[in-house]
Amino acid sequence: MRIVLAGLATSHPFTDARTLARYAELVVWEPDPERLRRFTGEHPTAVVASSLAEALATGPDGVVLTVPNPQVPEALAAVLATGAACFVNKPAAATRDQLERLDRLPIHDRVMSGSVLRFAPAFAGTTVDPAEVLSVRATVRHDVGMWATGYNAWQDTPGEGGGTMVTMGVHGVELLVALLGPDVRLVGAAGARRHYTTLRSEDAGVMALRWANGVTGTVEIIGVSEEESYSVTLHRRDSSETVVIEGGDDPIKGLGYEGTIAAFLGMVAGGPSPVPWAQTRAILDVLVSARESA
């Protein structure tokens, strides 16, 4: 099996590769020499390609795509032309223009994108009866201080990577849509810089959501935090239930990275994505709308 790591723009493909290396030959393309050097240091047998076209010409069975958001539509178009299964590391779009460019692509059922938390053991398999739910809340605690130093400035730039509202907010929106479905819209959003004053975006944010069946929801984004954790609370008439997702002793498993790669390998084997693109499209629309509103 041959898997192409197309881009190393965030930390996620480095984590993905540690699992994939147990199953496949790795081919990597990344224009930044320092990121590439770090990757090949961990995976010295990986085949290095000088361009995305060269990487895709190796005939991969699957592609993990991780490039800066403005480059995703063009790069994904090239991957789609190969027919290979593709996992696009989150978020696939951060602006309205990027989303509209994705909408023009022939995205097939072996393309998956989104938050790894959907596949975290603490959350995977969680189901609800929407008729019993009054409201829901997702809380994302993930420190964004690395951006305050200028690291990966494109992620912190609202018009490029979407900033904290999009890049961290995707985790909360993903979990709620996984439970309640894609028939959802943004009602409002707000963000603020409370601690990291040099950010281009925000370090705290909130979104208000409403599903077509009347369920309301909120996503809280806490970007100043010593610990990384995520939670979803379901409010019913007579009780509330909270699911907490943490890394624990094995973050690759606990945060869903391992489960995500298992789902991706199922697509490589010929199966459809377990995450319908309609859900991903709905999540991206909420995030883009929140960015515009905030």
Radius of gyration, whole Å: 18 Å
CATH superfamily descriptor of the largest domain? Dihydrodipicolinate Reductase, domain 2
What would the CATH topology of the largest domain be? Dihydrodipicolinate Reductase, domain 2
How many beta-strand segments? 12
Give the % helix.
25-40%
Strand content: 15-25%
Distance between the termini: 44 Å
Question: How would you describe what is shown here?
Answer:
This protein is of the alpha/beta class and 294 residues long. It folds into 2 domains: 115 residues, Rossmann fold; 149 residues, Dihydrodipicolinate Reductase, domain 2 (2-Layer Sandwich). It is 34% helix and 24% strand. The strands form 2 sheets. It has a 6-stranded parallel beta sheet, with helices on both faces. Strands 8-9-10-7-11-12 form a 6-stranded mixed beta sheet, covered by helices on one side. Strand 5, helix 5 and strand 6 form a beta-alpha-beta unit. The N and C termini lie far apart (44 Å).
Summarize the structure.
This protein has helices at residues 12-20, 33-42, 52-56, 72-80, 96-103, 145-148, 153-156, 163-167, 169-180, 251-254, 257-268, 277-293; strands spanning 2-6, 25-29, 47-48, 62-65, 85-89, 111-114, 135-141, 184-192, 204-211, 216-222, 229-235, 240-246. With 294 residues, the chain is α/β, with parallel strands linked by helices. The chain has a six-stranded parallel beta sheet with strand order 3-2-1-4-5-6, sandwiched between helices. It has a six-stranded mixed beta sheet with strand order 8-9-10-7-11-12, with helices on one face.
